[in-house]
Structures are given as structure tokens and as C-alpha cells.
Automatic annotation (TrEMBL):
Domain of life: Eukaryota
Keyword Nucleotide-binding: yes
Disordered: region residues: 1-22
Taxonomic lineage of the native organism: Eukaryota, Fungi, Dikarya, Ascomycota, Pezizomycotina
InterPro entries given in the database record: GK/Ca_channel_bsu, Guanylate_kin-like_dom, Guanylate_kinase, Guanylate_kinase_CS, P-loop_NTPase
Similarity section: Belongs to the guanylate kinase family.
Positions of the Guanylate kinase-like domain: 10-199
UniProt keyword terms in alphabetical order: ATP-binding, Kinase, Nucleotide-binding, Transferase
Name by which UniProt lists this protein: Guanylate kinase
Entry EC no(s): 2.7.4.8
A GO-annotated cellular component: cytosol
A GO molecular-function descriptor: GMP kinase activity
Matching SUPFAM superfamilies: P-loop containing nucleoside triphosphate hydrolases (SSF52540)
């Protein structure tokens, strides 16, 4: 009998881009369109939950000491500090991410990582053999409008996100950093391009 593929045998997808570039918007569509095929790796964060966010669903919310202990134990593939908070992707989350309760080992979902620039660099150093896509806003001005329009961030946070966005955009120009860059100008066009790129690895497109 052929060996059962482990959950991590499907190449993970790494989605990055400045805050407000539309990662959540496109990923929500992806999960809605193909609920059987993809799953998030749930990150750990020291930031406080926003709105209706639940522990273990959007993030694993942990304290700073808990986060530091995980770093010491080598539990993270990548971790970064952003806006005064820490974020990390654990090896365990990626390994287990593909499994769903009540399903056989072979029925795994491809893991999607939604991470920022430093995380992308770290994932490049692992043997996860990931595919990388960068979501680029049409311009920093439009990014600013979207961040304000979203209404979830304080003025200070918006300024910080815009500064970071410029660094992310600069890094995206590095050779080999990403397999695909998608400019999120018109949402429908961006979705179609994203969908097509994501589905390349699937047998049924
Ligand atoms: N193509 C688009 N045209 C207009 N508005 C858009 C487009 N794509 C996304 N938006 C809007 O821009 C805002 C930011 O998008 P979103 O929250 O998906 O960004 P994000 O990259 O997930 O940000 P974060 O990293 O902070 O979670 C949202 O209000 C979203 O509805």
C-alpha cells in the first residue's frame, strides 16, 4: 500500500503583502469557494483580540512570557514584531493545519500562511517548499484610504502600517522573494488572478 501522505506533504501557500493590501478579503473568498481544499495555519500573537475574534480561531492569543517560552523551545517557523505586538507561526500549526477532525489522514487541506515580510524570509529558509504570493496595493495613497475605510485601526497604527508597507513593497522587488505578485486594484481581477495561481497545484482547477 502506498504510504499515507502526511498533512504537510501539500506545498503550503504563503500569502503576504502590506496590511490593508487585501489578504483577508481574498483569503475569505478562497476559503468560501473551496472549503475542502484550504485551511489557515493559525498564528500565535500577543496582541489583544479585536471585536469577535476567538482564541484558537483567528489566532492563538498568548501572553508575552508564553510567546517567549515558545521561541526558546524552537517552536516557531517564523516570528516577528509588528506594531508593538509579536506574531508567530508554529511548526505545530503548519503540521496539524491540514488535518480536520473526523477526516482520514489522507484527506488533508493545503495550509495557507498569511504572514509578513520577515516571516516570508524565514519560511524561505525552511524545507517547507512553499509557494509565495505577494499582494500589492495599487499605491500607498490607496492603501491609506483602504486602511482608513476599514475603520479598525487607530491613527497611530495606520501611520505604522504605512511605513511598514513601504518596506514590504521594497522587499517584494527582491529576486526570488515571491513566485507571483498580484496588484490588488480591481478586486474581481485580483481575485481571478489569485484563484488561478492558487489552483495551479490542484488536480481539479
Ligand atoms: N480591490 C479592492 N478595492 C477596494 N477596497 C478593497 C480592495 N481589496 C480590499 N479592499 C478593502 O481594503 C481593506 C483592507 O483589506 P483587508 O482587511 O483584506 O487587508 P489585509 O491585507 O488582510 O490587512 P491586515 O494584514 O491588516 O489584516 C478592507 O476594508 C477591504 O474591504
Amino acid at each position: 500500500m502506498a504510504p499515507t501522505p502526511s498533512p504537510s506533504s501539500k506545498r503550503p501557500l504563503v500569502v503576504s503583502g502590506p496590511s490593508g493590501s487585501g489578504k483577508s478579503t481574498l483569503l475569505s473568498r478562497l476559503f468560501e469557494a473551496y472549503p475542502q481544499d484550504y485551511t489557515f495555519s493559525i498564528s500565535h500573537t500577543t496582541r489583544a483580540p479585536r471585536g469577535a475574534e476567538q482564541n484558537g480561531k483567528e489566532y492563538h492569543f498568548v501572553t508575552k512570557p508564553e510567546f517567549e517560552k515558545m521561541i526558546e523551545e524552537g517552536g516557531f517557523i517564523e516570528h516577528a514584531q509588528f506594531g508593538g505586538n509579536r506574531y508567530g507561526t508554529s511548526f505545530q500549526a503548519v503540521r496539524e493545519g491540514g488535518k480536520k477532525e473526523g477526516e482520514g489522514e489522507g484527506e488533508t487541506r493545503r495550509v495557507v500562511l498569511d504572514i509578513e515580510m520577515e516571516g516570508v524570509k524565514q519560511v524561505h529558509k525552511t524545507d517547507l517548499n512553499a509557494r509565495f504570493v505577494f499582494l500589492q496595493p495599487p499605491s500607498v495613497e490607496i492603501l491609506e484610504q483602504r486602511l482608513r475605510g476599514r475603520g479598525t485601526d487607530k491613527e497611530e497604527a495606520i501611520v505604522g502600517r504605512l511605513k511598514q508597507a513601504e518596506k514590504e513593497i521594497e522587499y517584494s522587488k527582491t529576486e526570488g522573494a515571491h513566485d507571483r505578485i498580484i496588484v490588488n486594484d480591481d478586486l474581481e481581477k485580483a481575485w481571478e488572478e489569485f484563484r488561478e495561481w492558487v489552483r495551479q497545484d490542484e488536480q481539479v482547477k
